[in-house]
Amino acid sequence: MSYIMVDIESDGPIPGDFSMICFGAVLVDEGLETTFYGKLKPISEKFNPDALAVSGFSREETMEFDDPKEVMLKFEEWIKENSKGRPIFISDNNGFDWMFICWYFHHFIERNPFGYSSRRLADLYCGLEKDTFAQWKHLRKTEHTHHPVDDAKGNAEVLLYMKKELGLKIGLK
Questions:
Q1: 3-state secondary structure of 86
Q2: Coil, strand or helix: which one is 166?
Q3: How many CB atoms are located within 10 Å of the residue 116 CB?
Q4: How far is CA 81 from CA 20, 65, 72, 139, in A?
Q5: CATH code for the part of the protein at 2-166
Q6: What is the pLDDT of residues 124-158, one digit of tens each?
Q7: From CA 123, how far away is CA 93, in angstroms rounded?
Q8: What are 8-51's pLDDT values in tens digits?
């Protein structure tokens, strides 16, 4: 199994009505050098300016981004090329990130290489600490910039810390 840490940026709260603007993925291994970055053209006329501002892009810039179907096909190929066994989706806030990635995969290419489930990094950490309020974001080494590759890499660093320092039993391939 290969863990793939994912982070997305969007222009609103839900897929379909709003758009995933960009996303990043990092194969979780010792080097954290295998990454994917996609920028997607909006799929809807609706957007929330405050949500879009988090991405650092203007609406005009996003209109020049890549076709979502092509990006999702490239991401699927990247997953196939870089994962061993079943790929496992993991993110900081998988309720949000998974919702967009899963919807985009099924909407645009009618399948999701991750299957039907995902993992949440914070829940793993809270379980190890036996504290549902445990804070973990200070364990990131890479600054949280809202560039999705940076954010995914910082979160992957936390997962590696949990394995090395806290004894999380996890197979990373």
A1: coil
A2: helix
A3: 6
A4: 23, 24, 14, 29
A5: 3.30.420.10
A6: 999 999 999 999 999 999 999 999 999 999 999 99
A7: 10
A8: 999 999 999 999 999 999 999 999 999 999 999 999 999 999 99
